[in-house]
């Protein structure tokens, strides 16, 4: 059963159109591919008098013209594609102004508007694939690359501001600390700490025995680093002291995310997601279901966990208890990047495209 709904920011505040349940899939799917305003004000209004009355209602028009909606229930019927690209999308990030940044193996960062889905700009300068992205507290964009550097870009106009050098291998991960410091993880086994103000190198954290592939910042300011050595290291966000090493994964740790309740989620090449206490690092749970490496994790505003894998799927989990909810399918190859937009939509990067759910 399919329900088309208009959903305000709050998940419980939604206006449903049950009449769409009667449509066969071959008619429903093409309708859902229309831009929402065109779909409701044009196509749907002409279907029958019941739909016309719903579309012209004050509540529906409020949602349409405030752009605070999405025309699907989270049954993940059919994704929309954000353009076509010339290379695989390896990483995604949202700027503070709502722009979405796509890091690609073609060495560029493509900038898209989340509001009207236009592509106003391409940031060029890296000589290796873009493997990591992070947004600073001041809105600056940081990109890590296979060329061993981190580039700093203006979040306003995309101007290249600075290049941070020091790593001796690819930069695979970036994160921003509570104090604005920038953390970069590299295949050279280290995590480098940089000033978010002027890009000065402040410190190098050593502890992993293989490359650093993922970074995340806890709600208490602690830094979490995942590595190909199968472990997660916990560091003080104040002075960089190594506090703890979390063990349990049997393959590389490829992704990290922090839940709304402070729990830490780690995705691994062992096909599992492990859940850890953000207080003392205790292993709480293991989420299973993927059949290949888990490359990406994202947390929704409703606390749901989204995981992307080499098996070509995205899995949706309840953050509170780890229950598996859904497995939306729309990619034909791996899912390498995930992020959640300001309106709650999910963006997944893969083979030369980004799907919007």
CATH superfamily of the largest domain: YVTN repeat-like/Quinoprotein amine dehydrogenase
Helix content: under 10%
Shape annotation: globular
Task: Name the CATH class of the largest domain.
Answer: Mainly Beta
Count of folded domains: 2
Query: What integer is the average pLDDT?
Result: 81
CATH overall fold name of the largest domain = Methylamine Dehydrogenase, Chain H
Give me the Rg, rounded.
Answer: 21 Å
Based on helices, strands and strand pairing, what is the structural class?
mainly beta
Ends distance:
18 Å
Biggest sheet descriptor: 4 strands, antiparallel
Estimate what percentage of residues fall within beta strands: 35-45%
| Overall strand count | 30
| Alpha plus pi helix count | 4
Strand order of the largest sheet: 3-30-29-28
Examine the secondary-structure arrangement and name the CATH architecture of the largest domain: 7 Propeller
Please provide a written account of the structure.
The structure is a single chain. The chain is mostly beta strands and 357 residues long. It folds into two domains: 4-66, no CATH class; 80-356, Methylamine Dehydrogenase, Chain H (7 Propeller). It has four helices and 30 strands. It has helices spanning 25-32, 36-43, 49-55, 58-66, and strands at 4-7, 14-17, 80-81, 89-94, 99-104, 109-113, 121-123, 130-135, 141-145, 150-153, 160-164, 171-176, 182-186, 190-194, 201-206, 212-217, 223-227, 232-235, 242-246, 253-258, 264-268, 272-276, 283-288, 294-299, 305-309, 314-317, 324-326, 337-340, 346-349, 354-356. It has a four-stranded antiparallel β-sheet, with no helix packed on it. Strand 1 and strand 2 (14-17) form a beta hairpin. The two termini are 18 Å apart.
């Amino acid at each position: 059963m399919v329900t088309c709904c208009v959903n305000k920011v709050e998940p419980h505040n939604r206006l449903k159109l049950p009449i769409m349940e009667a449509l066969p899939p071959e008619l429903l799917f093409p309708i859902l591919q229309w831009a929402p305003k065109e779909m409701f004000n044009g196509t749907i209004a002409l279907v029958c008098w019941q739909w016309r009355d719903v579309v012209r209602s004050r509540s529906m028009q409020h949602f349409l013209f405030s752009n605070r909606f999405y025309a699907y229930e989270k049954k993940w019927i059919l994704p929309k594609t954000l353009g076509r690209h010339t290379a695989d999308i390896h990483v995604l990030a949202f700027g503070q102004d709502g722009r979405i940044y796509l890091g690609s193996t073609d060495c560029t960062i493509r900038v898209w508007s989340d509001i009207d889905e236009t592509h106003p700009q391409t940031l060029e300068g890296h000589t290796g694939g873009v493997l990591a992205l992070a947004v600073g507290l001041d809105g600056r964009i940081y990109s890590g690359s296979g060329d061993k550097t981190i580039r700093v870009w203006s979040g306003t106009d995309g101007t290249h501001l600075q290049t941070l050098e020091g790593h001796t291998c690819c930069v695979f991960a970036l994160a921003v600390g509570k104090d604005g410091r920038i953390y970069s993880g590299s295949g050279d086994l280290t995590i480098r700490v940089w000033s978010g103000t002027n890009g000065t190198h402040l410190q190098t954290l050593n502890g992993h025995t293989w490359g650093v592939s993922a970074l995340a910042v806890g709600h208490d300011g602690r830094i979490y680093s995942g590595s190909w050595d199968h472990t997660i290291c916990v560091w003080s966000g104040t002075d960089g002291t190594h506090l703890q090493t979390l063990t349990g994964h049997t393959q590389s740790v490829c992704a990290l995310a922090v839940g709304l309740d402070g729990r830490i989620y780690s995705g691994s090449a062992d096909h599992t997601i492990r859940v850890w206490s953000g207080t003392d690092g205790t292993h709480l749970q293991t989420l299973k279901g993927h059949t290949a490496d888990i490359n990406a994790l994202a947390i929704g505003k409703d606390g749901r966990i989204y995981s992307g894998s080499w098996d070509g799927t995205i899995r949706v989990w309840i953050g509170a208890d780890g229950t598996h909810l859904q497995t939306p399918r729309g990619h034909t190859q791996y899912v390498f990047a995930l992020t959640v937009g300001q309106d709650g939509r999910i963006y997944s990067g893969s083979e030369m495209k980004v799907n919007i759910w």
